[in-house]
Write a structure and sequence with these properties.
By secondary structure, this protein is mainly alpha-helical. It folds into 2 domains: 1-123, no CATH class; 130-185, no CATH class. The protein is built from 8 helices and 4 strands. The chain has helices at 3-17, 40-43, 67-79, 89-102, 112-115, 130-143, 150-158, 178-182, and strands at residues 22-25, 58-61, 162-163, 170-171. It has a two-stranded parallel sheet. Strands 3-4 form a two-stranded antiparallel ribbon. Strand 1, helix 2 (40-43) and strand 2 form a beta-alpha-beta unit. The longest helix is centred in the N-terminal third of the chain and has 15 residues, at 3-17.
């Protein structure tokens, strides 16, 4: 059985058992092109397919594709003296959609999910500033049951790589790495 057929069967089986199933496809940028199109019928505007309704199912696609465009917009905002928090979806959606659709390495390359506008919403993850890394570190310490220590977290955050290199505005990595890096500073 082909991968696309296996994926369709897996989705159908889960939705048949639980109509409000949630599917998270991580690292779409590493997924073979055309594979995700195999589930297009389940995201399309059909009432039921083979007696199964997919209207309550939620599909979440995570990808690093489009990261360059997101970083460019964030940097453009900074150069204009605007805060990162002022960036809204309208500032990103068109370029992000085109980038993901036209990137041969995205998993969504030339995907009918994009061309037929079946992706309902984009949630871009903006690059983090130094202050965000500190917040992540303090939250991680609290989650571990530790007393948050701002000095420790600030030392950790200062050792991150930033871009542009001269100005050190945005971190090249996100909060995921904080839990791993924090151990070296405790």
């Amino acid at each position: 059985m082909a991968c696309g057929d296996q994926l369709k069967q897996w989705v159908k089986g889960n939705v048949s058992a639980c109509p409000s199933s949630m599917f998270i496809f991580d690292e779409m940028d590493k997924m073979p092109t055309d594979l995700i199109d195999s589930i297009k019928p389940y995201l399309d505007y059909h009432g039921t397919i083979d007696g199964v309704s997919y209207g309550q199912a939620i599909f979440i696609f995570l990808s690093n594709s489009g990261g360059t465009e997101i970083s460019k917009v964030a940097l453009d905002f900074w150069k204009k003296g605007q805060n990162r928090e002022e960036i809204n979806l309208m500032d990103l959606e068109k370029d992000l959609t085109l980038s993901v659709f036209n990137n041969e390495k995205s998993g969504f390359w030339r995907s009918s999910l994009i061309s037929e506008k079946l992706v309902g919403f984009y949630v871009p993850f903006l690059p983090l500033e130094y202050k965000h890394l500190v917040e992540c570190g303090l939250a991680e310490m609290k989650a571990r049951g530790m007393r948050p220590d701002k000095d420790v977290v600030e030392r950790m955050a200062k050792d991150y790589s930033f871009f542009p290199v001269e100005e050190r505005i945005f971190s090249t990595q996100g909060c995921k790495m904080v839990s791993k890096r924090l151990d070296f500073y405790l």
